UniProtKB/TrEMBL annotation:
SUPFAM superfamilies linked: Glyoxalase/Bleomycin resistance protein/Dihydroxybiphenyl dioxygenase
Superkingdom as given in the UniProt entry: Bacteria
Name listed for the protein in its UniProt record: VOC family protein
Species: Hymenobacter rubripertinctus
Domain (VOC) ranges: 2-113
């Protein structure tokens, strides 16, 4: 089994597409205003945005994107005007993370976990 795709809700799919393209994802299906699918620049995963009338309440969706050069990536995005809630910070679970929200309010975590992503010292 392999994770193929994650879909997030948005009221404005076009705005969400523009945001995710800034992050480096490439548009592969454009069915705006109701749907779009993008692909990650590395690997085989895809990411989609589906139009909804009402956004989820509460914590909602959290999506993680990993990049080996996290600090440089965040600096580039900040230079493009992307706003962050938290700049890259070392975490106790041995990842370095930056946090931001997409235009629909979905929580994004840009991170680098390296070997610890799948093989932390406490792995079962």
């Amino acid at each position: 089994m392999n994770l193929n795709q994650v879909t997030v809700p948005a009221r404005d799919v076009a705005a969400a597409v523009a945001f995710y393209q800034q992050l480096g994802l490439r548009l592969i299906v454009d069915a705006c205003p109701r749907y779009a699918r993008l692909e990650c620049p590395d690997g085989e995963a895809t990411f989609s945005i589906h139009r909804v009338e009402e956004l989820p309440r509460g914590e909602g969706v959290t999506v993680y994107f990993e990049h080996e050069e996290l600090d440089e990536w965040v600096a580039t995005l900040r230079g493009l005007g992307v706003k962050f809630e938290q700049l890259p910070t070392d975490q106790s679970w041995l990842w370095r993370e930056a946090r931001l929200k997409d235009p629909a309010g979905n929580q994004l975590i840009l991170f680098y976990g390296g070997e610890n992503r799948k093989n932390p010292p406490w792995r079962v």
